């Protein structure tokens, strides 16, 4: 189901502990892509998802999201619920773009 894109990515990144120990990665985009890949999604899909986030989230929200999801290993769903309503709307808009990304078969569409 296409509506599961954000939820699928949230599940894929929920256990992203491997990235926290990697030194030298400073770019939030790369951190999020690598977190997504580490959890089993294909690189092209991860890049597509993170591109959508970067395009639709404010620069500040995108940076905070990279820290929370990739570095602090916070589950995406919990993180989004902690945001203001305005920031949640930004994620909703990002999800509309994420639906264009092709998830691998591991999600069970």
UniProtKB/TrEMBL annotation:
Q: Is-annotated flag, keyword Lipoprotein?
A: yes
* UniProt keyword terms in alphabetical order: Lipoprotein
Name of the protein this chain belongs to: Putative lipoprotein
Question: Which species is the source of this protein?
Answer: Hyphomonas jannaschiana VP2
Its lineage opens with: Bacteria, Pseudomonadati, Pseudomonadota, Alphaproteobacteria, Hyphomonadales
């Amino acid at each position: 189901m296409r509506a599961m894109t954000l939820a699928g990515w949230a599940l894929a990144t929920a256990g992203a502990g491997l990235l926290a120990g990697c030194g030298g990665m400073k770019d939030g985009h790369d951190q999020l892509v690598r977190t997504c890949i580490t959890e089993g999604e294909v690189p092209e899909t991860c890049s597509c998802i993170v591109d959508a986030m970067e395009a639709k989230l404010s620069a500040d929200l995108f940076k905070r999201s990279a820290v929370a999801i990739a570095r602090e290993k916070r589950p995406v769903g919990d993180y989004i619920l902690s945001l203001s309503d305005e920031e949640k709307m930004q994620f909703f808009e990002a999800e509309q773009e994420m639906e264009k990304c092709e998830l691998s078969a591991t999600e069970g569409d």
